[in-house]
Amino acid sequence: MAEYMYHCYVYHTTTDVVGIDPVAEAANTLDFETNYKSQTVEVNDIIPATTTFEIIKTYTDFKALIDGVNILWTDVKHANEGKAYDIYLITDAPV
């Protein structure tokens, strides 16, 4: 059975990170930490199975997946990977 892993990064430390907008990342970090982080499940890491489809999203597009009815922030997992939060939503069917 295949799984779908929606994944985004939010950089909370932008020092030495090439190719990101530090102002946008600061806003995303503030939004995530203030509004959603406490509702998610913190994990050390996620290792996808060979039957997992990984879909990378922007933070804005990822937030749009959380409709508050079928998918809640409590369904989301996050890992603090040093400079960024890895934020994951794993589903059995595409969203």
Can you tag this structure with a few keywords?
5-stranded mixed β-sheet; 95 residues; 23% helix
In short:
With 95 residues, this protein is an alpha/beta fold. The protein is 23% helix and 29% strand.
Lateral arrangement of strands in the main beta sheet: 2-4-5-1-3
Largest sheet at a glance? 5 strands, mixed
User: Number of folding domains?
Assistant: 1
Strand tally is 5
Percent in strands: 25-35%
Number of helices: 2
**Overall mean pLDDT score?**
92
Structural class determined from secondary elements: alpha/beta
Q: How are helices and strands ordered from N to C? A: EHEEHEE
In the predicted model, the low-confidence regions spanning at least 5 consecutive residues are none
Give an account of the 3D structure.
There is one protein chain. The chain is α/β, with parallel strands linked by helices and 95 residues long. It has one domain (3-91). It is 23% helix and 29% strand. The protein has two helices and five strands. The protein has helices at residues 22-36, 59-65, and strands at 3-11, 41-42, 52-56, 77-80, 84-91. It has a five-stranded mixed beta sheet with strand order 2-4-5-1-3. The longest helix has 15 residues, at 22-36. The two termini are 16 Å apart.
